Amino acid sequence: MTSIDLNADLGEGFGRWQLTDDERLLSVVTSANVACGFHAGDAVTMRRVCELAAERGVRIGAQVSYRDLAGFGRRAMEVPPAELTAEVAYQIGALEVFARAAGARVAYVKPHGALYNRVVHDEDQAGAVVDGVLLAGATLPVLGLPGSRLLELAGKAGLPVVAEAFADRAYSDEGTLVPRGRDGAVVTDPDAVVERSLRLARCGTVTSYAGTTVEVRARSLCLHGDTPGAVDLARRVRERLEASGVTVEAFA
């Protein structure tokens, strides 16, 4: 039987400002990508999300980013590899404190935003992220785009790799994500997102921005938590998957 993990970006608030409905999304997803303070998130938010995730049996992942609170981690930045390595390890370590306090552990690592897109092709930045995971002291699985330099280097370093897909993002013919600044980069039609989710889970394919069929073999499906109606959409996706015989469970 086909199975897939559902992950969402959570804890993306700061102080009194809250972006994601963490509590409700944690009733739907199987893995939580928790912001670690560099693009969003603060100590109180990180602790709360870890406690909620642990209570619900949801896997906790460190969503690491460039240091860019003002730009929500979506601005291109030039960070020396050694600095990026240290900052990735720092973010993982910060989240691990709260995960352990909640009776859980950080179970994987996923880059966010500009860093996520950069490590698809940039070997130096991808290597720095891998080195940061290793510096944090654990052989944590790494989530990323299929065919990315990140997953290639992580695998060579002995880290488990988990390919990820996005039902609400447009793909190029090469299997990369269309930049957010382009019209149509984000799929906003809920029915389309639901059907794309099912196709990705069962067939491993998606229709590209240009209308061609692109292979995207993934073990985890990302549901963005910062879009309008995110909770209802996530619930619809899960219900559609399960009704079609797809098992929704955390990746092994």
TrEMBL record:
Keyword list, A-Z: ATP-binding, Hydrolase, Nucleotide-binding
Keyword Hydrolase in annotation: yes
SUPFAM superfamilies (alphabetical): Glycoside hydrolase/deacetylase
Keyword Lipoprotein: no
EC number: 3.5.2.9
Matching Pfam families: LamB_YcsF
Catalysed reactions listed for this entry: 5-oxo-L-proline + ATP + 2 H2O = L-glutamate + ADP + phosphate + H(+)
Membership in a protein family: Belongs to the LamB/PxpA family.
General function of this protein: Catalyzes the cleavage of 5-oxoproline to form L-glutamate coupled to the hydrolysis of ATP to ADP and inorganic phosphate.
Subunit structure: Forms a complex composed of PxpA, PxpB and PxpC.
Name assigned to this protein: 5-oxoprolinase subunit A
Protein species of origin: Streptomyces thermocoprophilus
Biological classification of the source: Bacteria, Bacillati, Actinomycetota, Actinomycetes, Kitasatosporales
Gene name for this UniProt entry: pxpA
